[in-house]
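Here is one chain, start to finish.
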Amino acid sequence: MSEQKHFFNAMTALGLLLALGMAAAAFILGVQAKHAVSSQQSITVKGLAEKPVKADRAQWTINIGVVAPTQAETLQAIDRERAVLENFLDQQGLDAGIRTVDVQTLGPHYEEEYVHDTPRQVQRGFEGYQNVHISTTDLSKIAAANQAILTLRADNHPITSQPPEFLVSNLEAVKMSLIADATKNARTRATEFVKQDGVKVGVMKSASQGAFYILPATGGEDSDNSYGGIYDKSTVDKIARVVVTVVYSIE
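Its structure:
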């Protein structure tokens, strides 16, 4: 009888221990499941930041193009026109120290003529070209010279120019400052989205940067995407803009 009583007591204790173990396991699994569900909940938002920037450097390319009967005469014509151009640039305050000159190039000059009503290309002398590049921080002189150069065309000088490019030299620093501001903006947006649901924005799970934009301050967009986005080079006053995409956990 005593052995049966000991056996009964042992089985009772074992049952209690098993019950406590199962309850503890259920509690732990419940907490883990709750954390797992919580970790899977997230919100994805975009953050935007922009600020005005001003160009501090200008680049300008001017083209000389001539046609003459012989190669020697073509080279001489280029030299004459370059002298005219250099005199013009000196008068505009754009001295030789900020100019670079490409090597002259020569090639055959073709004209179309008809033989028995059939068009064909016939060489008539040679073409010669030379480019002059200007790089300066004096933006006002470039803008003024770009308008004044039309007088050379009016005087029948074969000189043309490309639109000046107005550049921002510290783009990387501008970009870094905007990324920080855009990330702050993303958290603010995420907080605004979830505040009605009684949850909080948690840690950042991932982030990615979109394209970097340099836009005209007056609106509109330039098609040049040389900086991984849009880079307006036609205006002095610009707007720098960056967009980031951030994923936050929800607590």
